[in-house]
Amino acid sequence: MGWCELLNAIFELYFAVFSLFASLLITELMGAVVLLLFWKQAKSKVLEYIVPIWEVTGTFAALVVVMGDFAYPTLLIPIALIFAPLLTVFLILIVARNASIVFAEFIIKRKWLDKEKLFKLYAASTLVLGITVLIILSALISGAGVNFAQKTFSFAAWLSSPGSILFVVGTLGIGIGAAPVFFSLRSMKNRVLPLTGAGIGLSVLAYYLYSPSFVSVLMLIPVVLTLLVGVLFLISKKTAAIVSNKAIFIAVLSIIIFSLQFLVYPSAIGGAVSIDAVTTSGSLTSAYFSITAVGGTMLAILLGFYMNTAMRSKNSKIEERLK
């Protein structure tokens, strides 16, 4: 394998794992919004997914960080310095998210504190956490608000940059629109295409404002796949059952995210960083592939076990706790 091919392989592997992690986080984010807005109608279907999967999402996040440390060791510290305030918020929200869902699973109702309030606290924490991640991703793509030389990030500069708000709102729109598909909420099917369509439009506009070169023929892949999921959900109950299958949905969502790799490769942060220039070399390369192989295999087994057991059975314990 040549040097260029090796650099590309390191990125492709890393972005593939990131895509799966992002898919899990997005599905949690979709569930969070549904729980906040439609608790009574959707709690059983949403919680039977979220309660077992939230720990898997956190484990994938740890793998992404470890892989990033080995793949891009000279980039991780500058990124941490630049986004230190946002990462602090992220960590606080992670603690709030984890604590609230753990207490919600096992707590016995005590006066004002009950499962509904705790699960909604989890949902609110997850929603704000997701928005925080979207702000960071937006800056990593566009460079808006980032001063890479001084290792600082200005939220005001990010906010005033064309495309920033559109990126966040557009992505949330797609997620909220796709939520009825993922959780098989047929009563909300009329919201699917209008919300996903609007979200796609806003997202594409945001990418164009970041850089017109982003809106190319490659953009058709995520756009077509996203719309296809919504259309299949509406065509018939048979096709709806296919796209509502958790494993299929997450696989398609991972492909959609993976197809957007051109947003950060070969350069990121508005062209300020060449990804190949900061990619690991030497002995760290072997360590990177070894860690990815071992960690990725273990997590794949864990996720596969989850998809083939937990998601094929009704979680009777959750139903009992919600009574």
Which key features would you list for this structure?
single chain, 323 residues, mainly alpha, two-stranded antiparallel ribbon, 75% helix, disordered C terminus
What would your notes on this structure say?
Helix 1 (3-37) packs across helix 7 (164-182) and helix 9 crosses helix 10 (237-243). The protein has one domain (3-321). The chain contains 13 helices and 4 strands. With 323 residues, it is mostly helical. Strands 1-2 form a two-stranded antiparallel ribbon. It is 75% helix and 2% strand. The protein has helices at 3-37, 39-71, 73-82, 84-106, 115-142, 155-160, 164-182, 192-210, 220-235, 237-243, 246-258, 283-309, 316-321, and strands at 146-147, 152-153, 267-268, 273-274. The chain starts with a helix and ends with a helix. A hairpin with a 4-residue loop joins strand 3 and strand 4. Mean pLDDT is 90; it is low at 314-323.
